[in-house]
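Show me a record, fold above all:
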Amino acid sequence: MTHSTVSASPIPTHATVQLPTTIGLDLSDRVSHYHVLLGDGRTHSKGKLANTREDLTKHFAMWKGCRLVIEAGGPSHWISRLAHEQGLEVLVANPRHVPAISQSNNKSDKSDAQILAEVGCTDPKRLAPITHRSAEAQAHLAVHRARNEMVGNRTSMINHVRGVLKTHGQRAPQCSPESFGIRAYDSIPPELSAALKPLLQVIDVLNKQIKQYDKEIVRLGKEQYPVTQILQHIPGVGPNVSLGFVLTVDDPKRFKRSRSVGAYFGIVPRKRDSGNSNPQLPITKSGDREMRRLLVLSANYILGHFGPDCDLKRFGLRIAGDGTNKAAKKRARVAVARKLAVLMHHLWKTGEVYDPFYQAKRRGEPVPA
C-alpha cells in the first residue's frame, strides 16, 4: 500500500523552481514529510510521500539540482544515496546538532521538515553534516554487526544458564564461551534439564555460526580491506576490531587530523566551561556505539595482564596510577581507546608501519631490545 502525496501547492519541478531551493525531508518508517523552501525564504510547497524507492525517485527527479536536507537515521543511508543518484545535493544532519528539533516542545513531522529546510538554506554548517559510508561498506558492516549480535546473544544465554544453576545450588564449569555448550551439559541437574539443555543446544549452534562469521571477517579483511592487516599489528586489535574500524570510518580522508577520530566515536569528554568553572564531564558517546564498545574492549586488553608493553599501555598506566582508584582506571580505559582510534587512523592514512615504542623512543625512555 502506498501513500498519496499531499501538498499545499504543486510539487516543484527543476524548470520552475527558483534556485537555490532547499527541501527538508523528515524521515519516518513509512511516510516522510517534506517542506520546500525557495531561495528567497518563501515556502513553495509541503506535503508527505511514501518511503518507497518508486515514490522517492519520482520526487527526487522533480527536485533535481536542489538541496535535500535529512536527519541521520535508519533509512537515511539508502535514501541519501538514491538522492545523490538523482542529482540532488544531499546534507545529512547530525541530530545532536539540531536542537530546534531534538529539544522542541512542539515537535511534529511537519515542523521538523520545515526546520531542516530553513537551517539547510540559511546556515547548513549548523547541521554538522555527516558522510554515510558506501553501499558496499554498509553491506560488509552488516556481516560484522551480525557476528557481534550473535556474540551478545550467546553471552546473555550463558549468563542465564549460570544464574539459574546458582539459584539451585549448582555451578557451571569455568570454560570458554566456545566450549560452554558442551562442557556445561553434564552440569545440568535432572529437574532443570527441560529448561536449560535446549539453551545449551542453541549456544552450540551459535558457536558454529560465529565461527563462520569469523572466517568471513578474516576473508573480507584480507581480500577487500588489506589495511586491516597493518592495523592488526597493534596489541588488542584483531580481525573483528580492525575490520569494524575500517568499515565504520569508510574513508580516512574524511578527517583532516587523526585526532578528530576520537570525537567521531564519542570518546572525548564533554565540555561545559563557564567563567572559572571547568568541570570534568563524561564522554560524549556520540557516533557509533558498537565501534566505541570494541575500542574499549581493546583498551582493556592493552591495560590488562596479558597486554604487552607498548606506548599505549604505558600511557594508560600513567593515568590509572597504582590501580586502586576505580575512576582513574576507567579514565585510563577511555583514554587508551581514544588514543588507539587516533593511532589506527594515522597508520591507515599514512601507510606507516606500527612501532609499539615510537613515543618512548622520542622521549628517550628505555625500550625492550
